[in-house]
């Protein structure tokens, strides 16, 4: 019966992808097998309810899809938490090539990387205003490295909103970013895609999956990317990568998938343009005052070379209908060599100590004024980490109550060694209108003596939760995770050692009156210990001020959330809505350029509403839409180097009050075929695009550095016939001046200007 159900779901998935030439849109056989037990076993529906999770709903209404995380079984519909899933179909339609580009269509998420990879610690994300740079997971396991993540190896992304320490451990104040990697699956599929466009820009992706026998398959995905950024002088981003995957026991009760991932990138980092800062008036990026966004303020010697090598082994065993055991292991090694030239337009403000007239001149209308160069030239880091998560899911009845109990243990270790670069001597600064690109004769970069960091950490975190159905429609979920976290090493010549122990509880009340409706109320608590993410630099450097003091108070936060999820139009369309409040104590401030972290006793609060639509309005019309309102405030503050004055009552940095996004596509081929004068048009002709609005936000606690509100528009048209796929995408259709990252140290990275790409693909 299992094989029959698997074949039925696989056939349904093939039906969905019939009109799309690329293999990316088809439901994989191993995914269908994973979802097979969901309707009556893994999810929160009552035993008398049957939830349809066939391929058509899984590919459109993401409430019917899974998160890809073993510790969160079942579809998104049944999980009492705000979750946004970006499926492969949407990633492919948008032609998003990095994880940060994909997440730009998720309201409540801000990114701190651009196409050129700005940022000292690689991808930096914030969810609901809270740092999530250490909360990126691949197949439920931490991705330890600091690098710019290409999307070629990613099948889908789930963004979990709100504290999630009970599931993931330390961190996850705003939530977690969960990537599901591409894996070997049953069936033979081969595809090749080539993209070219403005910049110039070129990219190619080859995806080959081969079934070896009844339960074994192999897959390889290879990518090459070469890109100059439109309207950003001297900025480029070149990458290549490969994913190899072997699957054993696919479609059976016991399966093992072995993945190996390598990505190499060589780029010129884009630290954008300075933000005007005079300490009193509210300043914005200099491009808002008339400086051309193409102006590049770095130097010829700037470069960013990164390598990531990651191996994982994923095991899943089903022992009847009552027990599922998974064991997922991952080891990654990462290197990064970053050289950069950060600049300022300030008025003698920290960390620039020399007097400067840049801010005063810009505010007075004089743009031909000298900017400042901060004497910090980058980092060289080597890091590695390993993690193993063992999870057991038990389903049983006691006293007439149905249970789904999840228990396991999460263990990881991590090491990082970092050296800091400094220029051999001062470099002359140009002006905002005529920046200097060439290095001075004799210029060199040297390692700063006594500033390096060598840190190691480990964590042990057993976890348990139980969901109990009091009635077929009403259930309660309670769980807790206990963590023992230890970090030690030497940072900036100071010994570092601290141990933190904490418990992260979660409780939910869930009502499912029908299989298409879910209502919930949840409470969760998360903790972030000092030194939690040693590759980000900020944590170990922040610890160095304390030396060997033990048991430093971790950041802590509580969240309350009430929400609903509805599957509409025969499960084609999913709708969500939630009200939430997150309170955080003992918050910290991190300078993203220097990596310095200042410990505070600040208390902050973010509360708001979130609503979304995902799926098919009709058979031809697909929609991904969402809106978020966030009210983020600093409730109380303390005085420190980064906050020389009280900031009580100010808006919380990196929080836009309003965020709205829409991505939609419509198959117009049936309309054309219906015209009497038109020839028959085979296949699918999709016309679509996206609109992304984000209101203004501040990047500092004092609310003196602001990123203005912006609306950007993208467009696409694609044609799929038989085995062929053609598409044209236009990003930033209106050539809007916008920023895809901003930093509290005083700079922002503009998005590229209008860019056009053409795609040709074949499935063979």
Automatic annotation (TrEMBL):
Alphabetical UniProt keywords: Cell outer membrane, Membrane, Receptor, TonB box, Transmembrane, Transmembrane beta strand, Transport
Topology of the protein relative to the lipid bilayer: Multi-pass membrane protein
One GO BP: siderophore transport
SUPFAM superfamilies linked to this entry: Porins
InterPro entries xref list: Beta-barrel_TonB, Beta-barrel_TonB_sf, Plug_dom, Plug_dom_sf, TonB-dep_rcpt-like, TonB_sidphr_rcpt
A GO MF term: siderophore uptake transmembrane transporter activity
An annotated GO cellular component: cell outer membrane
Domain of life of the source: Bacteria
Protein name in the entry: TonB-dependent siderophore receptor
Organism in which the protein naturally occurs: Methylosinus trichosporium (strain ATCC 35070 / NCIMB 11131 / UNIQEM 75 / OB3b)
